[in-house]
Hints:
There is one protein chain. This protein has a three-stranded mixed sheet with strand order 1-3-4, with no helix packed on it. The protein has a three-stranded antiparallel sheet with strand order 2-5-8, with no helix packed on it. It has one domain: Archaeosine Trna-guanine Transglycosylase, Chain: A, domain 4, CATH 2.30.130.110. The radius of gyration is 15 Å and the shape is globular. Helices cover 11% and strands 33% of the residues. The protein has one helix and nine strands. It has one helix spanning 93-103, and strands spanning 2-6, 13-15, 26-31, 37-39, 49-51, 60-63, 66-71, 80-81, 86-87. It starts with a strand and ends with a helix. The chain is mainly beta.
Amino acid sequence: MKKVFVVYATDNVGTAVIEPIQTGDHVGCNGERSDLEVIALDEIAYGHKIALMDIAEGDTVLKYGLSIGSASRDIKEGEHVHDHNVESNRGRGDLSERESVAAE
């Protein structure tokens, strides 16, 4: 079984840090989420993320205990998680502009 790295039990994605993952591979976790096993729906390149559970559109994507963005569409357990289905929340000038307008 291939393994992904998961730092915190609250993380909903794991990172392929040992080897790439092929579609159909059984994937377990190292770290605080060692109880999970998913089947890869996509190829996951080294350093990329796999969904450990279903993530609904708009939900926060958590990696290493931190928000890395919001799901831009529904993401299925076992699916590749990357910029095609996650909208980053870092460096978003439009969000900071919206927040400053709301504070006025």
